[in-house]
Description:
By secondary structure, this protein is of the alpha/beta class. It has helices at 14-17, 25-42, 44-80, 89-135, 139-143, 147-160, 168-188, 190-237, 239-244, 248-300, 306-318, 320-347, 408-415, 459-464, 471-480, 484-488, 507-519, 537-549, 563-566, 586-592, 594-611, and strands at residues 369-377, 383-392, 397-401, 423-428, 431-432, 445-448, 525-529, 555-559, 571-576, 579-584.
Amino acid sequence: MTAPADERASDAPESVLRPEPPESLVTVLRDGFRLIGRFVRARPWSFLLALLGALVFASAIVLAAFVVGRVTDELIIPVLDGGEPIGSRWQGAVAAVLGVSAWKAGGIVLRRTAAGWLQFSTQADVRYRLVEHQMGLELRWFSSQSTGDLLSISETDARQGTFILAPLPFGTGSTLLLLGSVLIVFLIDWVLGLLTLGIIVAVVVIDVIGSWATFGAFETVQASRGAVSDVAHESFDGALTVKALGREDLEATRLRRASERLRDDIVRVARLWTLNRAVVEATPAVAALLLVIVGAVRIRAGAITAGDLVTVAYLVSLLTVPIFMLWFVLWDMAHSLAGWRRVEAVLDVEDAVVHGDERADTGGTGARVESDAIDFAYERGTPVLSGLDVDIPAGRTVAVVGPTGSGKSTFAMLLARLWDPTSGVIHLDERDLRAFARSELPREVAYVAQEAFLFDDDVRGNIGLGLEVDDEVIEEAARMAAAEEFVRALPHGFRTHLGERGTTLSGGQRQRIALARALARRPRLLILDDATSAVDPSVETDILRGLQEAELPSTVVLVAHRRSSIVLADEVLFLDDGRILDHGSHTELLGRQPGYARLLQAYDEDAARREAPG
């Protein structure tokens, strides 16, 4: 957040905001129809019901044209032109009109209900797939993604990608209506049939070319929306830093620039959309005028009757809606394809965590942890861990100590299988961590990070986090984490709503809630990655001593930097530069490892400075 405001229009790179030039017309149409086929195959019955409603509506339009033509020839002209008495013929005419209207109304209700169910159910399916797929990916993928952009994909692009489903059934029925109408007009008069066919073909060509021309613009709009979401999310998420450094104007400028770019992209699409729509809307009016002129000539030639011309003119006038629906289908297909490409880019990521079929062992004592020559390096980074061989007996408490950047936190995450080692293997009771089935390893292993994340829920919900246990278990976990006292002092105790990220609590209180969350699961391996760093040293000591004295079946591995915590461990692993330089008791390492002694002295001096008055 140090770059000048005028150099930071948005967080997204230019290649993301400005996609490649529009693809070929064939490619866009091919991928668009493939997308439609994918959605229809997933929910065929909803589509078929909506299509049935569209066909009912289309047939009502055709029937209406015939009814109007017959009423004109058999009722209106004889009465108005021939002076015949109207008699009871009007009753049949009214019954026919009402019958067609009811048939048409039924088709509309069926089509819209089924199409709505198809679209919104598919949206829900896509969002569920996105979340499920992302939750199965490696953490390294998340580290290279923008949270705001992922939110935009899950919400805006997932919705946009299914836009095509709203007009699709009507558009499909309209296509059949257009073909049927052309056939009917041909049967009435081949000259009028050719004219009608030419008009419809011209409209379709305009629609296809227009939707293709704006496909690239739609892609740009979707990318720009993701950029706005990204900037907004980062600004809100970092509100504390922004306000502390007085950078509100900078963040407002970043958001304004990203928003203006999105505005310009949307205006560009709207300009193309409006121009195309103006042409399409004008076409039926011009067509009706041409048909009346040509039809009048054909009547004088004796080729058709006045009723025939009324039927054709009425049919063409009613085709305005189907023509628009066909236009909407093609344009929404381009729009949906642009959104779906971003959804598909996430769904196509293959960096998934590979699981086996090993089941968790939730009984017994603490777990034995072994590692065999594990190496690890973050993507495109230098090695962080190299050749680590560890053997932690069951039920032991082990402190991992080392200078900043030595690989302590990385080692802790490997033990919880939040990352996989680049080479080597980690065993839990002689079982490879990679052999566990999905969601089974967390039943034995609990990881608590330094940054405690709390959800927008009450205290009990944050500790339980979906765990189906009695209140006694929740309260016991809070007691062991030294959280019970301050929780009961909250307005509603364990039912107090904490708000997003638990911002109503102090850092130490959030850490203790997160620790209680882990303890409620009674893990066989408890990993504390500096998880009590924000807690007072005396409270931290009480927590660790309480864990040792409690009847917990846990092996405890804690990343620590306070002497008061380290001395409570049964054994200390001393890491430096990604390697274990020594291991043993705290006293043993002080006596034989100068680097360890210097580090502890630095920790003590830092603690003394923090506790010094003033």
